[in-house]
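Structure first, sequence second, as always.
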């Protein structure tokens, strides 16, 4: 049975973490299959938006504490294989963050530890009213700084709130997650995926390169500490998009009150 389900619907690809009996916890199979799926999506010219969700009652409850299933014995394997495994897991956040397509996290249930990291690394986060969240790592005996959370969470919810969540490792509700700014919207469980698809369709109404460059630009602005450098970067994005065929098509479709027909040119 695959640990990640891939479903393509037009220009939207839905990736579903699929270890429902284990709350979609991260093991070697899920990490490998999700890595491969993200690589394939990044190379797929027909995919413009990604939705990430989970099977069953959880989004992802973090690392599988019953065993990662890679036959890595700490005494026999040593530090280097353990570090390589850590890099593989952390690489998921880097791939999501660096994917050219916007990623919408449709958080259908508990998102803890590595699951919360996947939520944070997405571009838009919509949660089920039944979803719950926790940094998690620290409660399992590790540092709370893992899989990009120490960089992403403060930028999403603010430094003070992130520090409290990271140092306590406490659970927080979907309502709290929305209030903190982690989630942009809440939906009833049965409406969650359609809400994510509706958001995806709104993104598809914009020119492909404009969307891709906006994702690059908005995260670059978050990482930059220079206002003037950010404005210069924006200027160049505007010039690039202004010279595309799709920019003209976008204007024509608006004036003619019809759906645009983009060609990514």
């Amino acid at each position: 049975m695959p640990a990640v389900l891939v479903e393509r619907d037009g220009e939207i690809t839905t990736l579903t973490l699929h270890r429902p009996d284990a709350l979609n916890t991260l093991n070697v199979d899920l990490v490998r299959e999700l890595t491969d799926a993200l690589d394939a999506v990044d190379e797929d010219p027909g995919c413009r938006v990604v939705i990430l969700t989970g099977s069953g009652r959880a989004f992802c409850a973090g690392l599988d504490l019953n065993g990662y299933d890679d036959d890595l014995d700490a005494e026999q394997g040593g530090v280097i294989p353990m570090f390589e495994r850590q890099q593989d897991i952390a690489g998921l956040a880097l791939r999501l963050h660096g994917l050219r397509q916007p990623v919408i996290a449709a958080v259908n249930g508990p998102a803890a530890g590595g699951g919360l990291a996947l939520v944070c690394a997405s571009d838009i986060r919509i949660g089920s009213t039944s979803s719950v969240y926790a940094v998690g790592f620290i409660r399992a005996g590790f540092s709370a700084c893992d899989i990009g959370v120490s960089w992403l969470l403060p930028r999403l919810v603010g430094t003070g709130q992130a520090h409290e969540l990271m140092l306590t490792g406490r659970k927080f509700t979907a309502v709290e997650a929305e209030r903190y700014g982690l989630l942009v919207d809440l939906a009833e469980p049965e409406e969650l995926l359609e809400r994510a698809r509706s958001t995806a369709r709104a993104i598809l109404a914009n020119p492909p390169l404009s969307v891709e460059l906006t994702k690059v630009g908005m995260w670059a602005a978050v990482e930059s500490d220079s206002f003037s450098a950010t404005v210069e970067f924006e200027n160049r994005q505007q010039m690039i998009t202004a010279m595309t065929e799709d920019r003209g098509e976008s204007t024509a479709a608006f004036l003619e009150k019809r759906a645009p027909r983009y060609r990514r040119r």
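Margin note: The radius of gyration is 19 Å.
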